[in-house]
Write a structure and sequence with these properties.
Length: 341
C-alpha cells in the first residue's frame, strides 16, 4: 500500500510539473475555418478535436481554439474574410498574452485568404495560415504535421514582422507570393519564381529572406467598419476572345473594377483591348496581369489606360484592387499601390 502511495505521489508531482511547464510556453490562438485539415471521411471535426489528437502540440505552445466557420475553402466568402480579419485584429490588439495566430483553412483559397489578411491585419505578431491536402485520419495525412509546424512558426520570434505566412509541407511562404499549383499532391504550394521564405525542420525554424512588399502594419487598408468590398471581376484572355464577358461584367454585373488575366506578356486580344480602353475611360479601373503564373508584367506607357499588376496572380490582384477601391479610384494612386503591395 505504501508503494502504491509513493507511485501515486510521484505521478501527482509529474502532473504538476507538466502543468507548470505548459504555463511557461507561449500562447498561440487557433482561428479555425474548416477545410481538409479538419476533415475526415465521416465529416469535419472541430479544430479543437484535431489539436487534441496531436500530442506534440503541447510541447510547443499553449493553445486556445476558436472556430469562426467550418466550411470547405471553395465556400469562403468576402463576408467571411471581413469577419476573420476583424476577429484576428481584436485578438492581437486586446489579448496581449497571445504570441501569434494560426488560421486553419481549406487549400483551394488559402492563398487568397492569406493575402487578404496580410493587407488587413494590423499587427507585427506572427500570423500563420495552414491547410492540408489529405484528410485528417486518412493514410499519410499531412494535416497533423502542417498543424504542428504552423504552431511552431506562430510561436517563433523569427516570424515577427514578416506578414501573413503560409506554412505547409516543411516550407514557409509569404502569403503574397504563394500559389497552390497542384491539385492533390503535398508539394502543391509554391512561391513561384520568388521562392520560399524559409523552412520548418525538426530541429529549428530557419528564415532565409524577408518580404519587402508592404503588409500588415504598413498597409493603409482598414476593414473594421466595412460590411462589403467593391465588386471586382477577373476576365481571362484566350485566342479570339471578344468583349462579350467584359460587357457582361460592366453592364450586367455592374463591376467596379476589372482584372484581366492577359497573355504572358501582359496583353489581351485586340478586341478586348479596344473595349477595355473604353471601360477605363468610364472611370472603371482595369488591372492587367497575366495567365502564365511566373514573372511580372511590364508597364507599357503606350497603354496608359491600364493599371499594371506587377507579379500578382489575377486572383490576388483582385484582392488588392477591391481594397484599394475603398481608398481611391485615381489611376496613379492605384498604380502606386500595385507597385508597393
Amino acid at each position: 500500500m505504501m508503494w502504491l502511495s509513493i507511485v501515486g505521489f510521484v505521478l501527482l508531482l509529474a502532473g504538476v510539473g507538466e502543468v507548470q511547464s505548459q504555463e511557461k510556453l507561449p500562447l498561440v490562438k487557433i482561428v479555425a475555418t474548416g477545410g481538409t485539415i479538419a476533415n475526415t471521411p465521416s465529416g469535419r471535426l472541430h479544430a479543437g478535436e484535431v489539436a487534441e489528437a496531436i500530442p506534440d502540440l503541447k510541447k510547443v505552445a499553449r493553445l486556445e481554439v476558436e472556430e469562426i466557420i467550418r466550411v470547405g475553402s471553395s465556400s469562403i466568402s468576402i463576408e467571411n474574410w471581413l469577419k476573420l480579419a476583424k476577429r484576428i485584429n481584436e485578438i492581437l490588439s486586446q489579448e496581449k498574452e497571445v504570441k501569434g495566430v494560426v488560421v486553419t483553412h481549406g487549400s483551394n483559397t488559402l492563398e487568397e485568404t492569406g493575402y487578404f489578411l496580410s493587407l488587413t491585419v494590423k499587427s507585427n505578431k506572427p500570423l500563420v495560415l495552414t491547410a492540408a491536402q489529405r484528410q485528417f485520419t486518412t493514410l499519410s495525412s499531412d494535416s497533423p504535421k502542417n498543424f504542428l509546424q504552423a504552431v511552431r512558426v506562430a510561436a517563433s520570434d523569427d516570424a515577427i514582422g514578416k506578414g501573413a505566412l503560409i506554412v505547409t509541407n516543411d516550407m514557409i511562404n509569404a502569403a503574397r507570393d504563394v500559389t497552390k499549383t497542384i491539385s492533390y499532391r503535398l508539394e502543391t504550394y509554391s512561391g513561384r519564381d520568388i521562392g520560399v521564405l524559409g523552412f520548418v525542420d525538426d530541429d529549428q525554424i530557419t528564415f532565409y529572406r524577408t518580404p519587402v512588399q508592404k503588409h500588415t502594419t504598413a498597409s493603409p487598408f482598414d476593414v473594421r467598419n466595412l460590411q462589403r468590398l467593391p465588386r471586382v471581376d477577373v476576365i481571362y484572355s484566350y485566342v479570339d476572345a471578344d468583349g462579350a464577358l467584359i460587357e457582361a461584367a460592366v453592364e450586367k454585373a455592374k463591376t467596379e473594377g476589372l482584372v484581366i488575366a492577359g497573355f504572358p506578356t501582359g496583353s489581351p486580344t485586340p478586341a478586348m483591348d479596344k473595349m477595355l480602353k473604353s471601360v477605363a475611360a468610364k472611370g472603371i479601373p482595369v488591372v492587367m496581369t497575366h495567365r502564365g503564373g511566373l514573372g511580372r508584367v511590364r508597364i507599357n506607357n503606350e497603354r496608359p489606360y491600364y493599371i499594371w499588376g506587377d507579379n500578382l496572380t489575377p486572383q490576388k490582384a483582385r484582392i488588392l484592387l477591391m481594397l484599394a477601391l475603398t481608398k481611391t479610384k485615381d489611376p496613379k494612386e492605384l498604380q502606386r499601390m500595385f507597385q508597393e503591395f
